[in-house]
Amino acid sequence: MASSKCVMPRLRGVVVAAFMGASLVIAVPSFAQGVPQLSVGHLTGEDRPVIDGKISEEVWSAEAAYSAFTQQEPSQGQPATERTDVWFFMDETNLYVAVVCYDTEPNSLVVSQSRRDANLGDTDSVQILLDTFNDGQNAFVFGTNPFGIEYDAQVMGEGQTGGGGFRGGGLNLAWDADWTVRASPSERGWEAEFAIPLRTLRYEPGQDRVWGVNVQRNIRRKNEQVFLAPVPRGYSLQRVSVAGKLNGLNLPSRRDLKFTPFVAGSFNDDKTLLTDTVDRGGDIGLDVKWGVRADLTLDLSVNTDFAQVEADEEQVNLTRFALFFPEKRSFFLENAQVFQLGQPREIDLFFSRRIGLAGGQPVDIIGAGRLSGKLGGNNVGFLNVQTDSAVDRRTGATISQANNFSVVRVQREVGRSNFGAMFVNRQGVGDLATADDYNRSLGLDLAWQATTNGKLFAFIARTDSPASKGGSDYAGRVYYNYANNLWSGNAGYSQVGEDFNPEVGFLPRRAYRKLQGRYALDYQPGRSTWLRRIAPHASFDATMNLQNELETSQGHWHFLDFRTNSGARFGYVINTEQDRPRQPFRVYSDVTGRTVTIPAGNYAWTQGMFEGNTDPSAPINASLRQRIGRFYDGDFLGWDATVGFRFGARLISEIGWDHSDIDLPGGSFTTDLIPIKVSYSFTSLANLQALIQYNKQRSTISSNIRLALLDRSNTGLFLVYNDRRDTSSFTREELLGRSFIIKYTRLLEL
Questions:
Q1: Given a cut of 80, is residue 748 above it in pLDDT?
Q2: In the structure, how many helices (H) and strands (E) does the chain have?
Q3: How many CB atoms lie within 10 A of CB 608?
Q4: pLDDT score recorded for residue 28
Q5: Does an H or E element contain 405, and which?
Q6: Range(s) for CATH 2.60.40.1190 in the chain?
Q7: Are β-strands 487-496 and 531-534 bridged in parallel, bridged antiparallel, or unpaired?
Q8: Which listed residue, 161, 270, 282, 732, has the most CB atoms within 10 A of its CB?
Q9: CATH value of 34-251 in 3.30.1390.10, 2.30.110.10, 2.60.40.1190, 1.10.10.10
Q10: Tens digits of residue pLDDT in 20-46
């Protein structure tokens, strides 16, 4: 432990120097000249469009449409091959947007998605970005396709929060807004109308305001992406700083108040219990959203319930570290980017799945509150959650005492850069908690836009626990990311102390130093009838202990990576790995009690992998990753295959097979994980989903069937059925448990 804490001051010095240097040289970069300048039309009296997906009212002809769209793919900088018209209007309460997507082959539209927030990359689609503070960093996104689905998201830090790269990390699809969209195919192609209430957005009120704006259209049969404000290749719509300007907005103060009550009933039959296997229950709760100001929102929740949340997809773990399962509960996901600090999935100071879950079992949330938005020119987030104690029904043992969780986040933006701090606290409360039952984390972070295309990320964090849990220690990271039209690369260094312990975060390992780097080429050859891009890339990371002894390393050498004009991809990869477990660890166990252990030692191995997929927008599509080579001191053969079927836009299904066949000196074993997904959409707001998973290692089949009849803002009626069965012996006792849940939520406004 002494070695851990004597090296951390050097890390602190490096990161603090980065903070101090940035504070001296940070400057607001100038935006590109000639960005599109748009004006919003104003509606008065009774002159309002009917939102029906048909651009036929005279109101839209009052202003000229904006039609100058530019390709990003396949021919960057060239005019779009199909015409797109877009109009913006507003009244005292709504922003209205109309889009006509002309198509010379209107019968060839690709409509492959029909669920709310479905991926818009494999369907004809339109997305509208609104930078409502005109800060070049943060925005709201609203999108749809010819089926008329609702797609909404929040963008923070141009999608680069936490050093997650230029293509993700800061896009929050869990944000579910209250708005209306209708779309329909037509003889012109297809068209869509949006009505976005101003109370749904956050902004600075006043007259003649300016917002950043961009529009992306995906012409899927050509695999062509076009933008109203050109976006360089290597970036996405989330590149907020290159957006155009929407001028002339008259924005009122926002004082909205929304109530979302729910009522739920459940039946649960757990056959693994010796007595009282059946549990029937009912519950009520309430969520409140108050627009304290136009730029600040207070969310309150009483008796929070997540019965309608989709089930986790199972994973096979062949490592000695914990797996990451993403958060899916909407209360924690809305504005989730505000509460990010650290290195995503490796050193997360706050990970909301630590709240309301213990040992894989749900823990009741008594109440929760969150205040987020802008205050005094800063991005702010305040979160407080109170959970109840929980008891294991099988053993009667307490699995969690009552806890109070608090998070405070403040961030200052300077141009396309930002810096901030976050504090996280868990405090045990109630009769079962002791006086020293606490854990606290404090972090400082920086995201400095060093050049137009390069960004530096840095953070330093400290955790404090009782002496019996290690006391205090530090972690930190410095990471640089760069991307242009031809290539991208990054490099980083991170370090975690031996007693660094963020109990409300995610940290799969401690006491290490890690170096990482990646380089990717994005080369588009001359015009080809089938080949669009050659994209070789390579990455390598090495993790050492605090005595600078190599512990693990991974190399990914993907020199053959080809992308076709249809969206298909294929290539071959060489993966090199090294691991030095200091203690034996169990790599496999099954329900019979059989285990396979890897002894302590130093291992190095290589695997070759074919990786490819067909056109993902096709009615029948497939992907395959096939691996062969060594694994520790044994042999490995495995594949991960998926086949998707689409019957029109309404019925979408997918079956996968993740198989591993491993032969080790300590024993041989196979794993099989087969997920089946089916989704049928009656309308864009009513759908039936099923997730059925077979796990050979656990000898189980689990089913999650979910019917959602939505109304507004992802509220409505939810019917959920869960089932889990033992496949080791097909007998009448094979049923391990089942549950049925009915939940209804309703959005009420004042």
A1: yes
A2: 2, 48
A3: 12
A4: 33
A5: strand 403-414
A6: 34-251
A7: unpaired
A8: 161
A9: 2.60.40.1190
A10: 343 333 333 333 447 899 999 999 877
